[in-house]
């Protein structure tokens, strides 16, 4: 749980992880990729990323945006009708206050962004803090923004098309050249578009969505060997390496 101000040219390399994440835009504008969707969020907008959704963020329109990021694990979440929300200036002030308060209650690690322990003697403060945070999230989730549309520039449409092609061919073993041909694009243009919205290599992303599918297969009872073969991994050791990099645990431990 942390707040920060991006530089005007800030660009974050995309990622996917096994926990929930909410990005609040307190000022300025940001561009955000959420799997196949591309959004431009303004001050007073927030987005919820569910576990294993690929996402990245960048400064948009020459602004130096102020944001708050809240990441958390949850065994249960309320039913939601969307992933984009509106919040008031009062909630923005409350977020800033809670960010400062958290630093007096919890121990931070990993570049001062991850809350790891409650400080000694702060147990009751921590409990009250979490109640305030949970109450604020319930208020946020009731304010779904149904009017914000997906960014529709031509390059954004090309990016969405590339992802559709990757998903349609998830069981195949493809090279960049083959993906470019399937998308009717040159390799250079393919890489340019993908890097703009994903900020990572297309083969890296392709492996990530394969592993998301692999986790579903293993969770449904399929063997690790069968899963690796199904998704085009001829080398099971390489499959295990990629799986652990994406999921944080080996396929055997996940199973």
């Amino acid at each position: 749980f942390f707040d920060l101000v991006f530089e005007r040219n800030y660009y974050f390399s995309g990622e996917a992880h096994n926990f929930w994440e909410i990005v609040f835009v307190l000022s300025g504008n940001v561009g955000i990729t959420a799997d196949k969707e591309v959004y431009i969020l303004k001050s007073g907008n927030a987005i919820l990323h569910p576990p294993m959704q690929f996402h990245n963020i960048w400064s948009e329109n020459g602004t130096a945006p102020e944001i708050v990021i809240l990441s958390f694990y949850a065994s249960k979440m309320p039913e939601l009708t969307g992933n984009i929300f509106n919040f008031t200036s009062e909630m923005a002030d409350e977020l800033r206050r809670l960010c400062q308060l958290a630093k007096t209650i919890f121990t931070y690690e990993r570049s001062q962004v991850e809350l790891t322990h409650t400080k000694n003697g702060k147990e009751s403060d921590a409990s009250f803090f979490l109640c305030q945070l949970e109450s604020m999230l319930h208020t946020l989730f009731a304010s779904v923004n149904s009017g914000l549309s997906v960014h529709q520039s031509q390059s954004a449409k090309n990016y969405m098309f590339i992802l559709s092609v990757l998903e349609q061919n998830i069981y195949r073993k493809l090279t960049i050249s083959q993906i470019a041909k399937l998308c009717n694009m040159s390799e250079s243009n393919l890489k340019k578009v993908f890097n703009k919205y994903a900020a990572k290599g297309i083969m890296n992303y392709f492996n990530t969505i394969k592993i998301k599918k692999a986790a579903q297969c293993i969770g449904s009872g399929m063997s690790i060997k069968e899963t690796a073969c199904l998704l085009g991994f001829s080398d099971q050791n390489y499959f295990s390496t990629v799986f652990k990099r994406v999921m944080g645990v080996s396929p055997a431990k996940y199973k």
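The mean pLDDT is 90. The chain has nine helices and ten strands.
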